Amino acid sequence: MPPELAIEARGLSKSFGELRAVSGLDLDVPRGQIYGFLGPNGSGKSTTIRMLCGLLTPSSGTADVLGTSIPGNAKLLKPKIGYMTQKFSLFGDMSVQENLQFMSEIYSYPAKERKSRIDELLSKYDLVPQRKQLAGTMSGGQKQRLALACAVLHHPELLLLDEPTSAVDPQSRRDFWANLFRLAGAGTTILVSTHYMDEAERCHRLAILDRGVKVADGTPQQLQASTGMHILEVVADDPYAAQSAISARPEIASVTQLGVRLRVLIPERHPDPVGIVKSALASQGVSGETRMATPSLEDVFVAVTMKPLDRDR
Amino acid sequence: MKSLSRLGAIIKKEVRQLARDRLTFGMVFGLPIIQILLFGYAINTDVRHLRTAIANQAGTHLSQQFESELRASQVVKVIASADTPGELENLLRRGKISLGIVIPADFDRRVADNNRAAIHILVDGSDPTILSVANQLRSMPIRFDSAEVQPHKQDLIEIRPYYNPERRTPVNIVPGLMGVILMMTMMLFTAVAIVRERERGNLELLINTPVSSAELMIGKVTPYIAIGLFQLAIILGVGQLLFDVPIRGSVVDLYIAGSAFIAANLSLGLLISTATHTQFQAMQLTVFILMPSILLSGFMFPFDGMPVVAQYIGEALPTTHFIRLSRGIMLREAPIAELWPDLLFLLVFTLLTMTVAAMRFSKRLD
Which fold has domain B50-162? Predict the structure, then answer.
């Protein structure tokens, strides 16, 4: 594995009985970057993360994580990774300080430095006033900060975050991402799964998963440049009528309403996308303004997760 | 009507969920069936086949005839013979027998004399049920050949209750209760231990740390050993204070037996914890083991009186072996070395269940 990669997975697959949760996943995660998994629920994000940290054994395929080969050697990996889930997995009947203390003991953090490390984390993650509070009684944002503090206490080289922001408010999410950038800046590799577009956009690189298959990966810019779709924006007085008029045309891959605007995806092989939309609107007598738009990550997501039938229109 | 259809939907959902929770579903049927079987067969005050040894010092025709009458009665099951009353006492103390029957050398003369007891029955009186059975034996006729002897002025058979001469129930109950209480609390504590972590999502965090499954298992069990030993002290204290239950043997021996028993229950609890998904399931399984431990361990009913199948089940339960140990040490002053098979059982049981629990746990990450 090239030394600049933290994770290199080849053909990683996992089946639960009949269900193929992840199939044939190849993954290259560079060191020191924030790598995102974007996908709907059930797309295999959690399963992949669990395979990478040795929690689940892959049905087939292998991965090299921080120089350790998976499956088989997960034990060697544990001290080098930090892990955090949506549920935060804190001990609710223990105080903030006790939770951190427990983690420092579990990871055999040098006894002399434990106290100073815990104090450092408490102030860094803004938990000093909650030091004595039971973790179970804290707000979602506070729990999230504590969970992150617990996950990074032992200076892991790799942080695996499974939908860490699903249960918190937007401000907490912003603060959380600021912390992630700080950690990545200090050299930590971060693998984070999400179903929020704005979070995916913050990642250095990301992979889009759909029903257990990686349908696209790259930097957000690369992905936006390679949708294979014309992206058009239509502003109409009657967006609903406009939507049904446009949807009726066979060339249209997807139409999404955003308030009074419509987002229209047309495969690139059609040479005159604006003409297609305009004639569709005219044929139904709907008035509206049509212009080309730059692809957003959401457009990418819609384009790569759509049915092959729609993509080939 | 809306309410009815909502109700119907709820009922359907509950049935569906129950049917999919295989363990709970099994318990719904298995529990009553097994409990009825246990209660039906084990509650049997008509005690038969008491383990007995005979010391026939007379060896006469009459004494042999008495012996065969005794065997035919089915009340006793003669499993050993001895030469002297001392040997019988020894067997009694080690818990090998419940009754020891002494036929003195001058048996024939005593029967003829009609004024002295001709038979001595040494009884492990720590169990009042056994004692009452022994008392029934008193009415057994003793015959010269086929002719019935004249009614005696005095009972031909004399009962000598050992270990509990006052015939008080608590003396027998407390050592048994010690086993039952320890088992209940110890098993419950650890049965929910792992499952609770799983339910709260802590387990996923824990298994992602360098902690090994053996560390986790032993770490979870250790605090409860101290709690168990503390409980042991409480029960002993209360037993002595309120019920005057003696500790005739060595307290150290009792604590050795107690520690082995606590370890056995804790590891059994852990095994339950690795075999279940919710705390509720863990509770059910615990109760499932609890009931036979109360009914078939010799705590409520004398072991000898139970049908063979029930005895086999009883032999597999740690509580049975601990109750033998605690009664032996506390009431019969038996040194633990004489009761080694029961101690060995507890140790082997602990080792086995702990190993299986740790193995199951490491496999259950998938």
Answer: abc type-2 transporter like fold (3.40.1710)
